[in-house]
Amino acid sequence: MEIDYCQDSTADAPRVVVYARQRDAGINALLQRISLLDTRDMIQARSPDGAVILKVADIALFRSSDKQVFARFGGHDLVVRETLKMLDRNLPEHLFQRVSNSAIVNLRFLRRFDLHANGVVSATLRDETSVKVTGTYMNALRERLISS
Fold first, then answer.
1. How far is CA 87 from the centre of its chain?
2. Dihedral over Cα of 124, 64, 44, 15: its sign
């Protein structure tokens, strides 16, 4: 079996096509396994080595900066195509919470909150990444953490 990747800047979502001489039991099994993948559980990102597919649950943070959106994965920031608005609508609600206009955190990666002398609250993740929590989203985050 040969596996390949083709970049298409016009594609809205990943598309998988299987080419074969004929459809047999092996191809059917492959198609079934591919169809079981829930695309909401995976996201495409760009690393220095090229395109990668990431498991959404393993992403600690989505953050926007300089008109790009980054996924914090394994201690690295990788570029993703989606906007934060799109991500906020499509990410699993039980895992992710918007904390500012420029950040969405995975609640499983939260380590602590810090209240600074100037009144700013920041959330610190397991890898010591710090992200500002704005007042607009603080109440929703507080309610969410208290109710869980």
1. 7
2. positive
